[in-house]
Design the sequence.
């Protein structure tokens, strides 16, 4: 049987990696949690480093 695991809809913006929950909202940031369908993107997030570098630059 399929489990009803959801994933933070905004995890790419807010977290370093996907945040999973059984509730309807992310326990970490409070954003909406959506059903974790098969990811259309690389789960290893090839662009994560690049994105985080940008974030760091913006902040610094
Ligand atoms: Zn979140």
Sequence:
């Amino acid at each position: 049987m399929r489990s009803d695991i959801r994933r933070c809809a905004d995890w790419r913006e807010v977290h370093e990696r996907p945040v999973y929950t059984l509730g309807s909202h992310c326990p970490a940031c409070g954003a909406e949690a959506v059903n974790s369908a098969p990811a259309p993107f690389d789960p290893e997030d090839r662009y994560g480093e690049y994105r985080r570098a940008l974030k760091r630059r913006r902040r610094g």
Remarks:
- The helical segments are 11-14, 48-59.
- The first helix runs from residue 11 to 14.
